[in-house]
Structure formats: C-alpha cells, structure tokens
C-alpha cells in the first residue's frame, strides 16, 4: 500500500510521526489556506505563527519602517471579550515587559488597545523552541546546557528583582536564537510575587509540587521549573513525563543521574528540592554560573540542524509517493458454456397516459416562475454605499475633508460614502493634516483609528491653546 511505502522509505523515521496530522495513506496533509496580509494599527501583519483557541500570534512589520525589522504581535481572536483570559494574558505580558528589560527577555516594541482589545508587539526571536532541541535528542554538551541555564536564570533574576513571577517555566517557553542565546518568552501567566493564584495553571511536567494547588505565586516555583528545563537539556529527555497538572503534587524524586551534574551546573539538584524553602534564589544561581565556560556555538549548531531537518521534512512531504504498478497474472479462461436458447422478446408496453392534471401543473409552474422574475426585477437594488467613522475624538477646531471637500461631521461621527477609494483628512487649524486612504465596499463600515498623540500632536495642541 502507498501508506506503508511512505512510512518505510525513511521520510518518517520516527514511528510516532509516520502519519502527520491530515496525512492519508502517506500523502501530504492538506495545504492550509494562504495568509492574507492585514493592516492592524501601525503594523502590517504578514504571517501567522500560531493560532490558539482565543488568541493569534503573527509576524508583523511596522508601517513606514524601512529597516525590515519584524515583530511578533499577539492579539485576541475576533469576538473574544476584553475581560477574557486571552485578553488578560496579553495585557499582563505587555505590563511585565514594559517594567522589566533584560537581554534574556524579548524586547517590547509596542502595546495598546485596538477596537477595545489589547495587543502587544514583541521582538521577533528567530530560532527554535528548546523543547524541540532538547527532548528526544542526544544530551547537550556541558557548555551548551550551561549557557541555557545561565540565560534563563538571568531572565528569572530580572523578573524576581522587580517582584514578578513567570508562572510557566517550560522548555517550550524558551527560544534559542541563531547565535545560541536563550530567551524566556510567553509571560501571559506572570503574577506579582505573593499574589493569589485562584486556579492551577502551567505546563504539565514542569510545575512545582506546591503549585499543584491554589495558593500564592512564589519565585521558588520558577526556580523549580528552571531546574526541570536544565535537567531536560543535560539528559536529553523529560524527567517528569506527566499529562496533567495535578500529577505534580504526587511526583517522585528526580533521576539520580542529575547528582553528577551539581558541580558542573551549580544549584541544579538543590533547585529540585521538594520544600520550596530549600531552593536557591535565581540571583545566586546566576552568580554560580557566570564564572564557568559556555558553548554557544554548539547551541547555534543545533538550531541550524533543526532548521535543515524541518526544511527537509517539508520538502519530502511535498513529494507524492510513487505507487508501483503491478500487473496481475492472467487467469486461465473458463470453459465455454452452451448458450441457452434465446427467449422470445416481450411485447413493448403501451406508453402511460398522462392526465390533464399533469399538464395543468406544468402550466401553473411556468406562470409562477414568470411572476417571480417580474417581482424580483422590481426590487430596489442593493445599497451601493458604505460608511466610515473615526474611532476617537477629532481635535478642537479641526475639520474633516473627504476627497478634498470639507464636510460636517455628524454627531455620531459616521459618514456615508459611495463605493470605491476615498481619502479622509483631519485638518488642524495650523495646517497639519492626518490623511487616511481606504476602499469602501457596498454595505461596509470602515472604522478609522487616530494614532496616539506624539510630540508633534502635543505641539499642535499647545499652539491651539495660545490662539486668541
């Protein structure tokens, strides 16, 4: 069968991955619909990285920025409430990164609200997640594992110094970039140290034992998660392969093989202590690691190999498997049988007689279709006009121009426009202009969002205040 050939020809070497999602009998999974670029405030969204149940993670470029720098933009999906979990997590991540700046954390480029929902734009870390580099592979070299341990510990030390707890230390939340540096990402579950945790949240297999029950956010729980991540790097496998968060409360002792790593990665064994009070602080872990040798080249080589392997898998999935044509052996013909005598042909049945009611029903149907066509022809055409409104307050003594003509803005801020391309300008008394060019479709409502006030806007408003 084609499915067996595709699994055995080496394209899916891992038995657990022989049939990727969407693949049928060895054929590649269906190609997803291409992403359509979208304007979002000051950004142009060009690619979707991930789509979760309640949020989108996308690659974006800033409008007017010719440097080519890309960002990762997170936003709730359309229809999500501003009070929903996804919106709160995105808002919390922007709050944390605005307060804590560290090389081992993604830099915050922008945050705010659009259409009543929060968003954050972060530094785009180009690389691979640590869980794909560490789990199921050969153990990392000592210097490479030590580099990951130091970078993540530095990120935790910066958060803990400002009073924040990450709350979801896991290998999937650590990105290794092209230079072999690690960054701690995904701060949507962060809380203030000592803040109440009304529910259990995190990643199975990395949660500290005390965090398996509701309580208070603790920096010691982050240190425990750091040790689990580092242990996965040095052993090449997950040390607690759990499927649910509740299992952390009944977890056994860590593998004994980690005891030999205490001298090479100081604080590793102590950080896995079941009692939170016996674990070291993130700052003391950083001090113990800073004097030791690192091997970032080995990490960068793993990232490059991971990319090459992923590219090869995509290429192999794009090729359809060759199906071998097999010729079945011919079977010996059956002996000829004597043909039976032909039966006399039956007499044709007379055609059925149609009653007058059938012809009457056909005539009535034709008349009804004609009447419906005449009625639909007289219906008024679809409204060919659309509308536009400004989401915000137009500055005092400013006026609005549509396609170069001054118009009076209604009380509700909504203008009706014909279909096609239009340019709306907000003209300030001193001559400054904000122009928006867009296309209106029939029955479409366009919302224009004014940019945040910058230094130029403040000077214009001060000039307006000085006018007699």
**In CATH terms, what is the architecture of the largest domain?**
Orthogonal Bundle
Category from helices, strands and their pairing: alpha+beta
Q: Provide the number of structural domains.
A: 3
Tell me the strand order in the biggest sheet: 1-2-3-4-6-5
Question: Could you describe the largest sheet, including whether it forms a barrel?
Answer: 6 strands, antiparallel
What amount of the residues lies in strands? Answer: 15-25%
Number of helices: 10
The counted number of beta strands is 20
How far apart the termini lie comes to 87 Å
Output the helix-strand order: HEEEEHEEEHHEEEEEEHHHHHEEEEEEEH
CATH topology of the largest domain: Transferase(Phosphotransferase), domain 1
Shape field: extended
What helical percentage do the residues reach? 25-40%
**Low-pLDDT residue spans:** 1-26, 322-338, 455-468
Q: Please write the CATH class name of the largest domain.
A: Mainly Alpha
- For CATH, the homologous superfamily of the largest domain is named as Transferase(Phosphotransferase) domain 1
**Whole-angstrom Rg:** 33 Å
How would you portray this structure in words?
With 468 residues, this protein is α+β, with helices and mostly antiparallel strands. It folds into three domains: 38-124, Phosphorylase Kinase, domain 1, CATH 3.30.200; 125-305, Transferase(Phosphotransferase) domain 1 (Transferase(Phosphotransferase), domain 1, Orthogonal Bundle), CATH 1.10.510; 385-447. The chain has helices spanning 2-8, 85-99, 130-134, 142-161, 219-235, 268-271, 282-290, 296-318, 356-377, 455-466; strands at residues 38-40, 43-51, 55-62, 70-76, 108-114, 117-123, 127-129, 164-165, 174-177, 182-184, 191-192, 196-197, 215-216, 385-391, 399-402, 405-407, 414-418, 420-427, 433-440, 445-449. The strands form six sheets. The protein has a six-stranded antiparallel sheet, covered by helices on one side. The chain is extended, with a radius of gyration of 33 Å.
